[in-house]
Amino acid sequence: MTLTTNHCRRAGPRIGGRSLVRTALSGALLTGIALPAMAADYPSVQPQRDVTVSYDLDSSATGPMRLRLMASPQMQIMRIELGGNGDYLLLDQGQERARLVSPQKGLDFAVPTEGFLHRDLGPASGLRFQRDGHRRIAGLSCTVWKVLGPDGAGDACVTEDGVVLEGQGRGFRPDDQGRVPAGHLIATAVDYAPLPPALFVVPPGLQEVDLPQALFRAMVPGLSGLPAP
Q: Which of 100, 126, 143, 146 is deepest in the core (most CB within 10 A)?
């Protein structure tokens, strides 16, 4: 059975589908990990091999929290584990969908990403990148990139094989709650061990909750520095 946001509202505040997905997507977009590989004048922020990265994140949308990213270039999917509550986010580039999986609630919140995961970030995107030296984070070297977009600015430190080790950004305008989107994350550990495919599959038996495209569209400005899709 597939549910909609109307079902969520009738089910009561404990489900909180919109709020949960908003928090998850905000953290994901801040890292830049949802962006595809780019040309030589831009950092590639798509990992080139299996990798697990632990991050400390603090943003206006999430507050302080820890998250863990697992990326499978072969499957074109990234998994983001949110703290220790068992929920996780799947960013599926092949299907162009973001899925917040909540096994404890028995729910799978699905949000269309409207082509964002394949988006071309060349000159037409309105983003400007500039190299700004190198850092060493979590035992790995990375290149610092400053980025300026129509809705926000920030910087990111990215390894040669596409792993984001640090990122921070701030929007230019308040969001719908009157807060200026801002945040910072930094990697605390990186592991390149192979990952089993089962990590990137939604468990059977969960009810799917279809959320509107507008929800993902609202997450993009400010936190990622990109105009809305």
A: 100
3-state secondary structure of 229: coil
Range(s) of the domain holding residue 79: 2-195+206-219
**pLDDT tens digit sequence for 125-157:** 677 888 999 999 999 999 999 988 888 888 889
Task: Tell me the DSSP string of 158-194.
Answer: E-TTS-EEEEEEEESS--TTSPPPEEEEEEEEEE---
Winning range, highest mean pLDDT, from 21-25, 41-45, 96-100: 96-100
What is the H or E stretch that residue 59 is in? strand 51-59
Largest CA distance in the chain: 52
Q: What is the pLDDT of residues 48-82, one digit of tens each?
A: 999 999 999 888 877 888 889 999 999 999 998 87
DSSP, collapsed to helix, strand or coil, labels residue 202 as coil
Closest CA to 49 of 79, 80, 75: 75
**Candidate ranges 9-18, 32-41, 88-97; pick with highest mean pLDDT:** 88-97
- For residue 46, the Cα-to-chain-centroid distance in whole angstroms is 12
What CATH number is given to the structural domain containing 129? Answer: 2.50.20.10
Its pTM surpasses 0.70: yes
Radius of gyration, alpha carbons of the chain: 17
> How many domains is the chain built from?
1
Q: How far apart are CA 37 and CA 118, in angstroms?
A: 9
Specify whether the CB–CB gap between 53 and 193 falls below 8 A: no
| Residue 223 identity | L
